[in-house]
Amino acid sequence: MNIFPLSPYSLTFPDPMAAEDEGIVAYGGDLSVNRLMKAYCSGIFPWYKEGDPILWWSPNPRFVLYLESFNLPKSLKKIIDKNIFEIKFDHNFTDVVDNCSSVKREGQTGSWLTDEMKEAYIALYNAGFAHSFESYRNGKLAGGGFGVTVGDIFCGESMFSFESNASKAAFAVLAERLKDKGFTLIDSQIYTEHLAMFGAENISRENYLQLVKKALLNPKEF
What is the CA radius of gyration of the chain? Predict the structure, then answer.
């Protein structure tokens, strides 16, 4: 398998449809705001480990949540209705990214959110492209996550939780907010049980790339 090396002098990415199903499209380049947004607008995202070159992915299939099919479990609705958590957006993006990076996850050692990646997403936030969703309890950050907006698609990147249901509640309120704002889709990239409980499903890479093209013609405000 030949993987395309990116030029430091060009933002051009290869056609993601030429990648194998695993999804590696290219390697190298940088994490500048312009290159990152070029990637997301091409249906591509970065993911790599500390010490490795930057790897750019577009897997097949793609795991997405159509907001019109969003399913709120009754048990979670009760928690939201009780106002156990206060939900905020873009209130403390940096802490959200730091917690997504440092929280311990079962079966994982380390994090793909390296210092370089964290700085890159903070730069996207400062440029208005990345956003956080946050749960607070008694004024303390209890859970949340962040992602990148592309037209009318929200590309979810990572989540964390210090309390049971904290991140799920924030995500559920996020989904309702996005739906109200005219967004059509949340991209989860690959399968997660967390998103499956809300009604997410696998679609082909080709289908996802077509949705991205349409999304760019229908930009929405977060």
Answer: 17
